[in-house]
Sequence to fold (862 residues):
Amino acid sequence: MKKLMLLGCGLMIALVLVACGDDTAGDSDTRVVTTALQASAVQVFRDDDTWDDNLWTRLIYDELGIVVDVTFTADSSTDAYSNQMNLLLASGDLPDVLRFDSREWFREAVDAGLVMDITDVFQEYASPEVLAFMERYPESFEGVTVDGRLYGFPFMNNNFHEASFFWMRDDWLEYVGGVPPQTLDEMVEMAIALSEGDPDGDGIYGNTFGFALQSNVVANNFGSIGGMLAAFGVPNYGDSGIFFRDADGLVTHSFIQPEVRYALEILNYLFEAGAIDPEFIVKDLSVLETDLALGRIGVGYHMNWGTWHPFNTVYTEDGVIVRPYPIPRAPGFEPLHGTRNNSMSEYFVIAADAAHPEAIIEIINLYYEVAVAGTQEQFLEFWADEQYRLSPIFIGIPTENNAVDIIAALEAGSSEELVGQPLAIFDLVVGFEDGSLADDMNAFGTWGQMSEYGTMRLALDYQAAGMLVADIMAGYVPESWLHHSANLVSHVQTNFVNFIIGNRSLDEFDDFIQEWLNMGGQEVLDDMNELYPN
Amino acid sequence: MKRLYPVICFEIERTDNEMQQSQKKKPSYWSKDFKKELPFYLMLIPAFVLVLVYSYGPMVGIAMAFQDFRLADGIFGSNFNGLDNFRTLFSMPNFWPVIRNTLIIALGKMIGGIIVPVGFALLLNEIRHMGFKKSIQTMVYLPNFLSWVILASIFIDILSPSDGVVNHMLGMIGIEPIFFLGDTTWFPITMIFTEIWRMFGFGAIIYLAALTGIDPTLYEAAQIDGANRIKQTLHITFPGILSTVILMTVLSMSGVLDGGFDQIFNMYNPAVMETGDILDTLIFRFGFQGTPQWALSTAANLFRSVVSTIFVVTSYILADRLVGYRIF
Fold:
């Protein structure tokens, strides 16, 4: 009996060993690509898909025999993803391919030799169609080129759409008379009327707020003050602000313009008047979005993609559209919107020690075939519903780049000129307007950007009126900015909040500017003038 | 873990005696006992290696505090710049306010963290009904196991001035709503109170343990002499646990620059930076948010470690002098 059991055990061990042998043999043929994904609340999964096993990982395995291994996902709407990136920088242990948007990070990673020089491998393996992007978007590729060598695969940027817009719920607009505010004075009056009145119609007066503000007041997101700064001719984008030239041609920065004070005065007035949630300082974006979905807040500044998030929640909850308008003007000021430099927004990099860089380029080629030049069905399957984000590397052609063509086709009422992605977008907008796609969130999101009421139309108007100012800082980042930016950003965030809630008197705004300059800001400006001479 | 020291401390006192004995027979100790105990020393090696690699190895990184650290050059390639990082750190306008905040919050927690658990343990000790006593004890020590990530969002809700339950109750007795997490005066106080609320149940366990160590015959004798319960508490119970109280106080001194990162990080906001920003959050922002400044972050952390070490040594000496407690 004992012998029999021993034999059985022996057999089992042998079987296991054989199985293992098979596995390792398989591994040497399969190429494994490790990656990190930016998780987000908007991510939708088809069926039982997960971050690790989804339609993209299956397609990549079936078509190319490449196994995609997701090493981690982190939320990119909070600091989680960028903190993780900084951790990777410190440890040097990068996944084979990852996506990020920080110039500083890119520079440090390239300097430290953590990122692969892909000049040759890209030329050798990229399909002609993919290579053609280098000629169509030279500025974007410039941004990930260091000393003539290519270190990343960039988003194909045309950043005209990174302006700010003023968004309002349709029913709240109705409540205050149906005409969106043209000037900041009108906006203030309206915000106070909305917070004292009963725009949500629950019979209780004063349980609403007329102006949305989140705790990070200079975020490039919902609840920012960016649009109000823009109204006073202060171009800005996100909490780092932008660098631009003043009247004398010298480099200056968004948040140290004297005009910022006027915007903060208005905000302080709104805060004192109760039009801003007194608790906004403890409410980060997700809490503000909850208030929005609950109908406590219905007006605020946001970027162009508001109908994708968070205004889609208002649409699904209440069936009410939150619509974009041009920012209310400040009399006597010409609005200026800041955008990032076209040479740098998001990018993919390949780790220096990646075993199969060519596999990653092959994924780009596959992505092009399926999600850019593919059929309508493929496009809807692999691109729509944010599915493209699940590919470890994708061609970031912002749909906004096609806005001119799509709007022209919509005005002409004919999609004859369009193919692929632009055609799918055309159909979504038309579908939303004729009601056939009224419940489709892709259609709603797209409609908010691309229709004649959408943000692209407004951004193109801004552009035509010469209101767009691009960040001067392109691929080259001065060392001093690397050193001081974290402190400067935090100084701006903290002080703006304190000015708004009245903890600090606005009479001290000049002191604030001086502090900013003393904390290293002046050094950064000097270096910028040297790096980017007029 | 340091709250478990008193339990260990009895054992240590015992080993102290044994040590004294073994010191007498020192000559034979190494030759005979070492051979006998050799397997145990060998078993210690993995743990020893782990500590060496993961606790002592990373200390090489302290070099960053004295460098003009560049990632491209690494720790061994970057230029040393002496105390430049510390000069930058100390000259930063928000550094000394941050130290002040850290001290206020940490000291508040230390003081409250002694008084409240001791008081609670004394009160709980008076309860005769065992079931009731046990359930109270379990209830108050549960919060200790909740992470601040969860507690922070709960507190943001219940402390809200508009619809939080706390301000609702204050409103009923005619007090204007207080913005606990948005007011520079109230924020540190709130931090101290919420932390004490979280840990006092757990802290009380030690004192309850110390209470069981009091000889019951003392109470019997006191009763015969006619002492009432308050007298008994004052003259028997309290002196009985006094050494434990002093010990815990002294041991907690090493946390003088530990304001409680998880708590503050999850609850602070731009409006209360002035009084709510502590050393740990400053170090975190240097190291991980925006563009990382590792050298400065390391310098700040080293400063914190040095100050803490001074306090640990002081507390060690004090513990020895006051209650005769020694680790080595």
Remarks:
- Confidence is low (pLDDT under 50) at residues 1-27 of chain A.
- The longest helix of chain A spans residues 2-29.
- Residues 144 and 166 of chain A are 33 Å apart (CA to CA).
